[in-house]
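Quick illustration for those who missed Monday's session on complexes.
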Amino acid sequence: MSEKATLAINGKSYEFPVVKGTEDELGIDISSLRTSTDGVITLDPGFKNTGSCESAITFLDGEKGILHYRGYGIEELAEKADFLEVVYLLIFGELPTESELEKFHYDIQHQSIVDEDVKKILDAFPKSAHPMGVLCSLTSALTAFNPTSVDVRSEEAMYKSIVKILGKFPVLVAWTMRKKMGLPLNYGSTSLGYVENVLQMMFRQPNEEYTLNPIVVEALDKLLILHADHEQNCSTSTVRIAGSSHAGLFVSLASGISALWGPLHGGANQAVIEMLEAIKADGGDTKKFMAKAKDKNDPFRLMGFGHRVYKNFDPRAKIIKKAADEVLADLGIEDPILEIAKGLEKEALEDPYFVERKLYPNVDFYSGIIYRALGIPTEMFTVMFALGRLPGWIAQWREMRLNKEPIGRPRQIYIGKTLRPFIPVEKR
Ligand code: ACO
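Prediction with acetyl coenzyme *A bound:
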């Protein structure tokens, strides 16, 4: 007999089925709660205890520090796969064969032209605009130039929209950066690999050849893989909810970009570098900033520390810390910021405040250091996160549509005024 959970309320008791995932996670299926109990709901701000869907894409165990994409360990994927293979794996469920990968790459690269009129939209933004705002607007605007991408029901129509956005998004990323740097907007080449193409589009100068550095390619490839999916995080849940109204893929992704922008989520990578720079400018006293982070009357938090689900360590941070050391050594960069980062990490890992609250460095504590070493401007860091997270958002959106999930619409417990009579303005 399958397990049941019992709930007693108002003198009555109710039974709910318990669902078990393939990694033995347990969840109480309360989808019949409201109807069977005559209106009772659950209350869980921040959804710390709420599963919003059943998903076969990513498994993570925050206590044990485990992260798997479609059953493959993140450590193995970061070492052996390339980003495009991971993109395919996340979206379609299996690693591609050589011919599947070739076709996928071909389809993406041949969808990488963006309508010239998009440049006019980009042109209208001030140079000071934050790249995340620009990227979000341009991604949303792509819908207007590709109206057939909205009403996607068949798998074939979904595939077309997916390769379109995978082709055009890196162009938008590159253009967003180039606009900020005052460089001409260019295109890559269909003959280059996905990541190589991104780098060329971002960095090729109008007056010289761009030579790809294999160390830089590998570092970016790894970073994108590590950011590619993270199950039902804030931006992904946003994409799934926006898409659940059957809004098109591109605008659903634009909602995810907005959610990612915040410093408590993807914006943390920019915030980390800004924090490290502020510490350096202040004389490099990490202890002073540690004290600020622990002071409840001070809003300052140690950016890049703590995670909603990883309460032991972030497995991505382990990989990325090693990668940061390697990239800096390979490129011969000595960055005083890295020394401050290492000092902070050491102190935090030994400090009872951080130890008791299980606050460890997360993936973004080190990603910014690598982006910096690759010559990517600080304000672009969260955009790079979005580029990495794109396949995860797409995979989750596709799964939600194929599962025919209902529109996302949480309930609430109302705590406002009860019904009262209207008072005309002259009598208030
Ligand atoms: N610095 C100082 N104290 C912290 C920090 C931090 N970075 N993070 C959490 N705490 C403290 C809180 O003040 C709280 O203390 P209390 O129990 O005494 O009140 C306790 O640790 C628990 O913190 P919560 O905010 O409840 O933890 P939650 O799981 O809700 O938040 C979050 C996780 C948002 C990531 C938080 O740790 C944080 O703000 N970190 C800094 C921002 C950051 O690095 N974000 C990136 C996340 S990873 C990503 O998006 C890829």
